[in-house]
Design a protein that fits this description.
Elements (H helix, E strand, L loop, with lengths): L8 E3 L9 E7 L3 H6 L5 E4 L7 E7 L7 H4 L5 H8 L3 E14 L2 H6 L1 H4 L11 E16 L7 E4 L5
Parallel strand pairs: 2-4
Antiparallel strand pairs: 1-7, 2-7, 3-6, 4-5, 5-6
């Protein structure tokens, strides 16, 4: 994105946003829609975070074609939300980061993160716990691998 654009995007890992900016995380569809709708409450990553507070949910341009995720898209509202890609679709409050250190611990949390037990990776995974998720007006912008900052979003 050009520096002169009103909606700039910058990658960050543990840096806090400046005033007028929000942190965002990119998630593939249908998982982004499920997270925004509260059907999925934990986003799984290979890295931990200490971040807390409101996080924008970005729907990545490339979807995840695993059928188990798409099988959870059962309502017209979820279907509409899952069609959105390449932009911000919602906001949720990141409350904590859990460590899944064993396959058994990961499998027990399947109802929250919605991943099959065989998705577990040696060395462990981290679960970003989200609450109070809700959709917001779609805002096109590129995503990033880590947290990134977004300007020009109004949360109403």
């Amino acid at each position: 994105m050009r520096k002169s654009d009103s909606n700039s995007v910058r990658a960050t890992h543990e840096r806090l946003p400046s005033p007028g900016q929000f942190l965002a995380i990119s998630v593939k569809q249908p998982w982004a829609a499920l997270l925004v709708a509260g059907v999925k409450t934990v986003e799984v990553r290979t890295w931990r975070t200490r971040k807390h507070g409101p996080i924008l949910i970005h729907a990545a341009k490339i979807p995840d074609n695993r059928p188990e995720g798409w099988a959870l898209i059962t309502t017209p509202t979820l279907k509409e939300l899952a069609r959105l890609q390449g932009g911000i679709i919602g906001v949720a409050n990141l409350t904590t980061c859990l460590k899944y250190s064993t396959p058994e611990v990961f499998a027990k949390a399947e109802d929250a993160h919605r991943n099959a037990p065989d998705w577990f990776r040696e060395g462990g995974l981290y679960g970003f716990v989200f609450q109070d998720a809700r959709p917001i007006a779609y805002h096109a912008c590129p995503g990033r691998t880590l947290f990134f900052t977004v300007e020009g979003i109004t949360l109403l």
